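Notes for week 9. Today we move from apo structures to complexes. The key idea is that a small molecule is not decoration. When we ask for a structure prediction with zinc ion present, the ligand SMILES becomes part of the input, just like the chain. The input block below holds both the sequence and the ligand string. Read it once before you look at the output, and try to guess where the molecule might sit.
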Amino acid sequence: MQLIKSNLFNNFSNLTHALTTRHGGVSQKPYDSLNLAWHVGDDAQLVEINHKLLSEELGYDKNSLIHMKQIHSNLVHVVIEEDDFFTPRSCDALITNKKNTPLMVMVADCSPLLFYDDVQKVIAVAHAGRAGAFKNIVKNVVDCFVNEFACEPQNLYVTVGASIGVCCYEVGQEVYDEACAIGLEYTVRKKENRYYLDVTKILQSQLLECGVKKENLEISDECTSCKNESYFSYRKSGVTGRFAGLLMIK
Ligand SMILES: [Zn+2]
């Protein structure tokens, strides 16, 4: 199984984390092979096996995993006792201080974000594409660390996995107009009358604005569409699987 580890998060021996790639699972084309999402048309039994394989590789109980029904919102859910593997909440971020409770975000072009506060021992994962970035889900996650868990933003470590790059994320005039209206014009690149959006740049500035230290931030520069052999890309392939970011306190 090909997993990507964060240099930042590798420093914490009490954490289990990974960013998955499309390699190492059992799903067939066009979900080959480590598709972790059920809603994309893949055989549910194969998705289940992929989850089993990942849990064995990383050493957690498959059914202890908390994932989400992601809806391109800025909603953050604080994990409670009733949450389980089989009934994911509709939200785009999860946060917890519970041990042995792996959190997962699934993506194919959107950004997977992993957060950790080593002082209060709190983790979060978040899903942010254009919509989540425009709605500033990052701020809601950081606010939740502060308000619900008494964390300080300068103690947060954040890693952001591969997403569609400004090289490949062409957007229409209406998205450009919307970006301008909320002060994000600087994140749109214009080339031959076409517009390209840099979501990663938005997330980075939002994280810094929230008080996350630059040296505690690690952002992948890999583009899921350019590197479609490693990652699922919705823009590139249409019907495809989802890879994931996973984080757990041991
Ligand atoms: Zn690209």
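The mean pLDDT is 97.
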